[in-house]
Amino acid sequence: MALELGKIGIWRHWHQLDADLAREVERLGYGAIWIGGSPDGRLDIVDELLDATERITIATGIVNMWKDDAATVGASFHRIEARHPGRFLLGVGIGHPEATQEYQKPYDKIVDYLDGLDEAGVPVAARALAALGPKVLKLSAERTAGAHPYLTTPAHTREAREILGEGVLLAPEQKIVLETDPGAARAIGRPAVQHPYLGLVNYRTNLLRHGFTEADLDDGGSDALIDALALHGDIDSIARGIQAHLDAGADHVCVQALGDDPLPAYRAVSEALLS
Q: What is the helix (H) or strand (E) element at residue 68, kind and residue range?
């Protein structure tokens, strides 16, 4: 892989990110910051985070293909790359059918968008693709540096690695709640899983494909589902859950700490896995 991501990064919605958090995450030894929530195609937030830091890679997780065209995003990539060469990974994805009335033939849209990034001169090695199912996972290996799956388990990571083959980036997201009381932890984790993901067909289909049932996905999600998708417990338990993705074939895990203040969890993960 051309970009250096390290084995652990953080995932955070774009409006929850700022220069101070970026500097602290870099100090803690994380390799990447993944910007979630479909940031605007100008990607000014990427400039802000790169300007505030010295070495950490900034990635988008993801730019939504329906929101901003490939030419616009390609121009943003070149602006960022010129100022901070080798520190930006452009993650792109199709989103989900419920998000837009224009959502049609998603696979064709992905291919057309990647063609547009080619025309805009965005290098294959500097872009990644949101991917869950086998067909898009294969496409991510053929047309990008690799895959950024969201809301998955180590079982999916293992299957994804088999599909991608070796030498292709696999960077799944994993939610965590640093809380030892199961009820309190689920009260934090369940809303982050339920809304909107358990109402979206692509995520439901993927979870059903990996051992969960319709009953697990309904009524806010079963405890077993929430415990798998939003790891909770002490830091040793959480570290084992993150490590399970790496053992299953992930190159890099994007850790999303849930709760009002993510820093205690990110500091604990850093001490457990990065020190």
A: none
CB half-sphere exposure, 167, CA atoms < 13 A = 2
Residue ranges and CATH numbers for the domains of the chain are: 8-274 (3.20.20.30)
CA distance 99 to 66: 9
pLDDT band at 1 (very low <50, low <70, confident <90, very high): very low
CA–CA distances in Å: residue 177 to residues 27, 54, 152, 157, 237: 21, 28, 16, 20, 11
Q: Which DSSP state fits 217?
A: H
Output the DSSP codes for 130-154.
---SHHHHHHHHHHSSEE---S--H
| Residue 229 near residue 154, CB atoms below 8 Å | no
User: With a threshold of 0.90, does the pTM exceed it?
Assistant: yes
Whether 261 has a pLDDT exceeding 80, the answer reads yes
Does residue 156 come out as left (phi exceeding 0), alpha (psi in the -120 to 50 range) or beta?
Answer: alpha
